[in-house]
Specification:
It is built from 18 helices and five strands. By secondary structure, it is mainly alpha-helical. The protein folds into two domains: 131 residues, Rossmann fold, CATH 3.40.50.10770; 244 residues, no CATH class. The strands form two sheets. A three-stranded mixed β-sheet has the order 3-4-5. Strands 1-2 form a two-stranded parallel sheet. α11 packs parallel to α14. It is elongated and about 105 Å long.
């Protein structure tokens, strides 16, 4: 509680301070006083004894030596709040009197530390002082003003794929500005989606087809498309593999936007491999993690290729052999790969040379662009309307 000197009528100010104490039901009062206003404490104690028939206890005066120094007051008030927090007190701040610097600083510190600000209101007489018996202690609701600062930060974090940070910050937002529980589910859902944990993402997002707010119209439209895509992935619908491919391609783009080029190129490499895997399974029944040699023999695939795979303990083939096998099938993807064999080897080496794979090279945006263009060329051979799936798995963005 900041305390002024009550220049025109000290007793009326003391009565106002008394009402603040009574109505706040405080069990510990910190009086922030100047050397000139220290005497107000005795006046408040006198009024308290007279009206309550007992002495005022559980108070502590704190002298404000520099009543017009903002930095000094800021440190003094902040230190007091931190100590009270450590002791487990719920802190209320009254700033009805004192110098302008004291009042403004106490209110600002209260807002910064998320404390309840209180002010004593009453009808005023002709002398502009409170009329006795009409005093009412009222909270000053700063949530709306805090929200104007915090909500844009929450949206920025989400838009930049920092889903955990957005979830942590949203606790500081009022329910009037954003439905916190609902958006925590959204942030969790996209955290899982971004980490290709599709089942967990769908569990968080599946019931969020309607946010009930015009403000989120475009966000809602894209969210609904994402939920539809996740539903197909989780339920193993026919288009599941194309949604997964598109999701990884979008994931690569998000890493690129974060300047994580090594991560982005690793995802493009995986996408190029997945294109071949999808084609081999859908058209020829080949599971690349465990190749069925009998299928290869039935389809009269090159005997050297068969023998090479047959000798392995685990009959698994990777990117280069995926496209080699597609070539033996006479598939357009295999032909495209080997038509551009030298370029594809160079692009594949981007990933292999990366510090996240087998080398010590840090990759850059130019290498990403080059590989990204080529991967999309292959993806469009696999699925000419792949852009439809790309759009369905793009993450929504909050509008400014």
């Amino acid at each position: 509680m900041t305390v002024g000197i009550g220049r025109d009528d000290p007793e009326k100010l003391a009565n106002a301070l008394f009402e603040t104490i009574i109505q706040s039901r405080a069990n510990l009062i910190l009086f922030f006083v100047s050397k000139d206003s220290f005497c107000m404490i005795d006046l408040v104690k006198t009024i308290y004894l007279k009206k309550k028939n007992k002495e005022l206890k559980n108070y502590k005066p704190i002298c404000v030596d520099k009543i017009d120094d903002f930095d000094y007051c800021f440190e003094l008030f902040s230190s007091a709040i931190i100590k009270l927090d450590q002791l487990g007190y719920e802190v209320l701040i009254s700033f009805n009197s004192g110098t302008k610097t004291m009042c403004v600083t106490s209110a600002l510190v209260g807002a910064l530390y998320d404390k309840q600000l209180m002010f004593l209101d009453a009808k005023r007489g002709e002398d502009n002082f409170f009329t006795g018996g009409t005093e009412s202690l009222r909270p000053l609701n700063l949530y709306r003003y805090r929200d104007t600062l915090i909500v844009p930060k929450v949206k920025y974090l989400f838009n930049n794929n920092r889903f955990d940070a957005a979830k942590a910050l949203i606790d500081q937002v009022s329910y009037d500005a954003m439905n916190k529980d609902l958006f925590k589910d959204i942030f969790d859902g996209y955290y899982y989606f971004d980490n290709v944990q599709f089942n967990k993402a769908f569990d968080k997002l599946k019931n969020l087809y309607e946010l009930n707010s015009r403000e989120y119209g475009e966000f809602q439209k894209q969210l609904n498309q994402n939920i539809d895509a996740l539903k197909d992935i989780v339920n193993k619908e026919n288009d599941r593999c194309y949604y997964i491919l598109a999701s990884i391609l979008n994931n690569a783009r998000r890493r690129f936007d974060e300047n994580k080029f090594d991560d982005a190129i690793a995802r493009l490499y995986r996408s190029l491999e997945l294109v071949a895997q999808i084609q081999l399974y859908n058209k020829y029944g080949i599971i690349t993690e465990n190749v069925d040699i009998d299928i290869l023999r039935r389809d009269k695939i090159n005997s050297k290729f068969i023998n090479r795979v047959k000798k392995r303990k685990f009959k698994r083939i990777a990117l280069k052999e995926d496209y080699e096998l597609l070539l033996y099938y006479g598939d357009e993807l295999g032909k495209l790969y080997y038509k551009n064999k030298d370029e594809m080897m160079e692009l594949s080496n981007y990933r292999n040379d990366s510090i996240l794979a087998h080398g010590l090279v840090s990759l850059d945006d130019k290498k990403f662009d080059k590989l990204n263009k080529k991967v999309f060329e292959f993806a469009r051979v696999l699925k000419p309307d792949i852009d439809y799936y790309i759009k369905k798995t793009e993450f929504p963005k909050f509008m400014d």
